[in-house]
User: Fold this.
Amino acid sequence: MTMMEKSRAIESVWPDIVKAEGAEPSFQAGDEIKISMRFPVGHYRVPTYIRGKHGRVEAVVEPAAINNEDEGFGRNAGVKRHYYRIAIPLCELWPGYAGAKNDGLRIEVFETWLERS
Amino acid sequence: MSTHAQAHTPVPDAGDAMPSYYEIMETAVRELLVEKELIGAGEIRQMLEVMDTRTPALGSKIVARAWVDPEFRTRLLANGRATLEELGIDFFENTQLIVLENTDKVHNLVVCTLCSCYPREILGLPPDWYKMKPYRARAVKEPRAVLAEFGTVIPDDVEIRVSDSTSMIRFLVLPERPEGTENFTEEQLAALVTRDAMIGVVKASAPGKEKSR
Assistant:
């Protein structure tokens, strides 16, 4: 049983519970997204080559995790959120990409870096 | 057999060179952590001992098992970490494992552009080239050229899928089982699976081209 199925099974037993913030992923497989174009000072685990690029959510990564970028800078990350396995075509990343058009990147990105597109 | 000339070639003793900036920083942080009793000196030694038992041979066995046991393969692809933990392989980093299956339509390649994230629990320490900037920068930009330099030519109708490990996930490539291995035992199959095949820069070796131990 996947985490999602487990969570649905629990929902059917406890239909009235309210989930904590961040407990449910905000994006689902298939969603079209854009990686945020932001350049905060410091080391962030979102490589600059994917910032501002368009892609698609391939899978939600379970379990939810703390925001290690906040924690890494000594700030309490508070609630947990999800990472997502994101698919971006290499021809979207690199204009003039010489390989086959189906070639692609897969990369995990934390929820706070994703925008709907 | 050393010749006379070689016997007199001066070989620097380990530790003779001045420590680098990062070696000094590592020593300072380590000594502080021990002094503040956040870790014990023995814990570092123990972790090195753990790492010494993790080599690509472990990964090769996992791949060979997946080739002969379809039920295990299905579970491994669905949840790498949980499936390997059932076998008694512990994960000492707080990471998940995605096993990427190579097929006649998809060829997977693994890189960590930011540093050297690697499935250390099952492959041990990464090779030097994996940690160096040329591979890290080029694997996501011109994977076909990088693969060709490893002697791996992937036809254009096969999709190249580059997985960049940046945070929570580590990746193991499950190579295609080579042809002509139908009667091979699990042990014979494991001998065809090199470290590089599990990173995705080459395919599993053909029968008769077993890796040397």
